[in-house]
Amino acid sequence: MTMSNQEERTVREMMGSSICLVPEKHLLCLLCRNIFTNPVTIPCGHSFCLSCLSQFWTRRQAKYCPDCRRLFANKPDLSVNHILADVCENYRSAHPQKPPDEETVTDVQQMIQDRLHKIERLKSSLEVQKSSYLREVRESQKVFSALVCAMETTHKAVVSAIESKQKEEEQRVQKLIREIKEEIEQLRNHLNQADPQDFDQSEGMKQVVSLSEMKDWSRVSIESDPCVGVTRRAMSDLLEKIKLEVNRLSKAEQRRLERYTVELNLSGKTAHPFLSVSDDRKQVRHTNKLQEVPDHPTRFDRVANVLAKEGFSSGRVYWEVEVGDKIEWNLGVARQSINRKGKFTVCPANGFWTLSLKAGGQYIANTSPVTFVALEQRPKTVAVFLDYAQGFVSFFCAESGAHIYTFTDRFTDRLYPIFSPGRLHGGKNAAPLIITSSFCSI
């Protein structure tokens, strides 16, 4: 039964409208990434352009599917899949494409424009960076000029104090010498009395009294090193001024680092069973009771730690953790590949860069051996800053901005923020660690 011309046109229109619904990706040759031309379908069911597959097999001794890699013992016969060829032809008719040359030119022009824009952005970033460099140079000039001035002033004051002390001692010694000379003169007069027979007894008694009242010079001396400690005390005063300036710079530094604040969430699957993570993933506390949690390769099973879900392998990141009045905790970053099972030493060599407060009130940086850190102010909130490229992990007191400690290392693995709220200590350390910082866009 033959179709009329009208019926044939209707079938073609229906076929064309159906073709419009076929995603183009199903009509693309894996080898040339274009719509099939003379498509052939091989025994595994995958299709390619006849010329593309022929060239592919010509260059290879083994005959296998470029898509699924199925190996054929004998080269399959390649016959054009006419149904698929018709579908592709209808798709081309329904979706006219730009001539390949025009399309290539447009793509190349767009690539050129993208790269020109990138150059402009890089130049703009460099200008912003130059401003930052100049600002830092000016700040360093200001700080170090003030420091040099303070040192010169302090040095002048020390020299002046020493010279003044020396002058006082010289005057004192000259006075003593005058007194001694006067007594020597009196003693010589005593020896030069004319005749003992003419000696008046009453006058002799006066001279005896005078001799007995003379000073005992054996008890008089001068210090051989009168300026001991002068320079040290001056340096101590200078160091106090430097310390105040360092704290001022630390506070300014911390404020600038806040722009790198990131959103952190605790990873429940890494938490030791003794730890309880809040529903919002911002708090962790020690329960002293094993939680019913599924075993997981990333879970700590010996040390009560928990990691953040977010890890970092580039850039700069900043976050703050509220420690409150807790008497024990541990904060910092850890390598993705750290040991999570059994006992291990927390130190940079093992992939940990952390700061701790011990139950005795001592702050330590977990180096090997540990570094004791003296703090004037007990932080309620600790700020942590990671500069991956520079290899810095820095800790600050968030309230005062005082710098606590900085690790310097070379990072090659992904780093994750790590938290340990410490043991309960009879309920004295039951408060949680709280991630207080949240992402802010500037």
From TrEMBL:
Keyword match Transmembrane helix: no
UniProt name for this protein: Bloodthirsty-related gene family, member 2
Residue ranges annotated for the RING-type domain, each copy included: 29-69
UniProt domain B30.2/SPRY: residue ranges: 244-439
Pfam families assigned: PRY (PF13765), SPRY (PF00622), TRIM_CC (PF25600), zf-C3HC4_4 (PF15227)
Native species: Cyprinodon variegatus
PROSITE patterns for the chain: B302_SPRY, ZF_RING_1, ZF_RING_2
InterPro entries, per database record: B30.2/SPRY, B30.2/SPRY_sf, Butyrophylin_SPRY, ConA-like_dom_sf, PRY, SPRY_dom, TRIM/RBCC, TRIM8/14/16/25/29/45/65_CC
GO molecular function: zinc ion binding
UniProt entry keywords in alphabetical sequence: Coiled coil, Metal-binding, Zinc, Zinc-finger
Transmembrane regions listed in the UniProt entry: none
Lineage: Eukaryota, Metazoa, Chordata, Craniata, Vertebrata
Gene3D superfamilies, per the entry: 2.60.120.920, Zinc/RING finger domain, C3HC4 (zinc finger) (3.30.40.10)
Coiled-coil stretches noted in the UniProt entry, renumbered to this chain: 159-197
